[in-house]
Each structure stands twice: as C-alpha cells, then as structure tokens.
C-alpha cells in the first residue's frame, strides 16, 4: 500500500499530490494515476531541513531542487531508516 | 454566517509563523557560547543557524521557506573581502603618514576620500548581501534571486545621499523608497519578477513628524554653540553674559526633541515598512502589511526595561538590603574588599553588553518584529506564486563578505 505525499518537482512551485513507495533501492514517486514521476535513490535522500526531523517531514534528493513533503501524520520512519545518508548535509545544495 | 465571511474564516492565511521564542533562545545561547569559545570565528555558522531557524519557521501556502546558505560560505566571503580591505587600509595609513601635520587641507581631503570609499563599500555590501540571501532562499524548491546591478544601486544611493545632504535630510524618505523600488524590481522568485508600486509622498506627513524634532535639535544645538565665546586650544568656552536662560531653554528643547525624535522615528520606521511591503506585487498577487506599532513599541520598551534590570542586578546583589538608588552609581558604594569584588561588576558589565543585551534584544524584540512581519502580512491572489518556474540564473558562490566585514545586516 503506497503512502501519500505532496511533491514539488523543482521546476515550478506547483504542489502535486503523489503516491510514494520503496522499490529495491529507490523511492518511487508516482502521480494519482500511477504514472511514475521520478525515482530517488535511497542513498541520495536527505532531510530538506537538517535540524527538523518531526512531522511534517520534508525531504530532498541530492543534486536536484525537488522537494517531497510527507503527510503530517506520517513520521517517515518506514522510509528514513532505509536512507543511509538522510542526515548528511551536502556542501553547496544550490546547483 | 454570510458566504464571504464564511470563506474568509475557512481560508488559512497565506503566511504563517511557527517559531517559538524558547527554541530561538536555545539557538542563540549555543551560538553565543560557541562564538566565545572560538574567539568569534563561529559567528558565521551562528548567523546561518539563526537564518535557518527563521526561514524554516515561515510557512507560505503551507510550505516553509528554506535557507540553503552555509556558515562556510559566509566565512570564505569574509576572508576574501578582508584580503582586499586590509591592503587598502595599509595604503590609506601609508599615505596618511606621508602628509605633513600642518597640511590641513590635504588631511581633510584624505579623510573625505576615506569616508567616500567607506560609503561606497557599505552600499555595495548591502546590495550584495541581499543578492546572497535571496539566492539562498527557496520555497518549494524554487530559488529566489536578486538581479540588477550593484553599480547602478551605488549610483542611485550616491545621488540620493547627496540630495539628502543638500536638503538637510528631508530627501531621505525619497531615497529609502527609491532604493527599495530598485531592490524589489530586481527581486524574483524563480523567473517571476516582483514589482513595487508606491510613491514616497504618501509617507511625507509621518516623515515630517520625524524631521521637525531633528531640525529642532540641530537649531537648538547651533543656538547653544553661538551662546559661547570662541575659545583657544587651552581654554574652555565661556557662556556669553545674559545667555543663561536662553541656553537653558535650548537645552530643554533638545531634551524634548530627542525624546520626540526617538518615538516618532520608531513609529515612522514601522509605517515605512508597512508601506514598503504593501506596495509589493507579483503579477496579480499583492501584499498588504498591518505591522502593529503599539505591540512592537511595548516589546522594545520591555527589552530596555529588562536590560536595565540586568544592569541593576550586580548592585542589588552586592549591596543586598542596603541597596538604594540614591547611592547609585557604584563608586559611592562601600569600598570593595578584594580585587575580585572590584572586578566582578566590570566583568558583569562586559558580559552584559557583549552577550546578555544582544540576547535580550534578539529574543524579545527582533523575534517579535519578524513574527509580526510574517503574521500581519496578507497576500491577495497568493496562488499566483505557485506558477513560479525555476530560473537558470547564476547564483553567487561565496557569502556576504563585505556586509560581514562592515557589519551590515540585522542577522
């Protein structure tokens, strides 16, 4: 059963409702119709705000501007403990 | 309930603030300790932490702003600017030492050049500081930015400063609004550019309430100066006979004008901020600020009261039940018994000025200003901002440098 979240693709400020699930070593982000929008490698997933780890959880993928906002009742534990670099703060987040 | 009213109740505000004063205090205390332990070097990382705190607590259309800058960038920017400013300072000192002591005109000329350079650096530093801050601010992954030319901004600021000097400060208001217009017209979220609609003359009457006390202070000051006879290097000036009452009246006028000036300037600053925000547009989206004067005035007054209480604390502790404001200041209290007793109040004063006062001011007043700036700003047609598309513009690679070197900027 996929979780729901909202997604900003980093190209516009529009907010998209998405479904998310883990497949192999990636987080698969799909639209409501089930079409895959993007896949984030679990190793590239980071907290968007490194000092805030309480819901609502915001995540980013190293190397792009997209953001994923988990639902406010989702503490993200099912996902974050599978992301080895979740707390890493990359130098120069701005590309 | 009427339909319109129902809709207004149901719609959450576009801008919200989640920050807690206690969390901010914790950030500042940790920053303060680390800054002292590292002899000031940590201040760049401290700044980044404070910004991250505020940015992440401002939510726009339910999503927080993000600050993506780092302390390392600020530190590198500072080092680069110091590497440029330090040799310039040496050159200035070398030229200064070559000028003979009796060449007054040459010395004055050198001073003028020095202050002109400082003025230019301040303007450049200010604009570049905003460029950096905007480039490190994102919302929903879309970056803000500040385009425009630093040199055009410098030319604009120089022209207006000259005009302000010629008009004895009256044109200051027009300068503020015109520079803000330039800044906002070059600010963008993604590729969407903001604009500013406003005219300084709308703020003229509030500005007059600041300007009149200013002129009174200057006029009374000149009156007092003219009431004294010219003096030589070895003699103190003496008051011209019969001018005692005039000087007393002028002194009272300066006192009243100063008090009026501070209160009027405080209120004016808030009105100007409201006006500046309320003139900002982005497509059909328009901003409106209702920044409260009374509330901010109370918080400023409370901050000063608290600082006063902190200053009195060592005297109360030292004298205990014998504490009496009548024996204030410290010099009239009983002789301190030991060196540590004598040095303790001085050390306390130092810690108060360097650490406790900025802490009180930041937690009490600055925090409230930022909170009120956010929660009293409404945005009509805010949804337009959701259409902002990412811009491919280049972003600065290092931090604010000049702004840090010249200590510009609130946080």
3D architecture notes:
The complex is a heterodimer of chains A (95) and B (411). Chain A is mostly beta strands and 95 residues long. Chain A has one helix and seven strands; from the N terminus they run βββββββα. Chain A has a seven-stranded antiparallel sheet with strand order 4-3-2-1-7-6-5, with no helix packed on it. The longest helix of chain A has 4 residues, at 77-80. Chain A is globular and about 35 Å long. Chain A starts with a strand and ends in a 15-residue tail after the last helix. The model of chain A has no long low-confidence stretch (mean pLDDT 87). By secondary structure, chain B is an alpha+beta fold. Chain B has a domain at 292-375. Helix content of chain B is 62%, strand content 9%. Chain B has helices at 3-10, 21-37, 43-56, 71-98, 104-135, 150-166, 172-185, 204-226, 244-278, 293-319, 339-375, 402-405, and strands at 15-17, 58-60, 63-67, 137-139, 142-146, 187-189, 192-193, 195-196, 280-282, 285-289, 377-380. In chain B, the strands form two sheets. A seven-stranded antiparallel sheet of chain B has the order 1-2-3-4-5-6-7. In chain B, strands 8-9-10-11 form a four-stranded antiparallel sheet. The mean pLDDT of chain B is 86. Classes of the chains: A mainly beta (95), B alpha+beta (411). Chain A binds chain B through residues 8-15, 48-49, 51-52, 58, 60, 65-67, 69, 91-94, and chain B through 52-53, 56, 61, 63-64, 66, 68, 70, 72, 135-136, 138-143, 189-190, 385-390, 395.
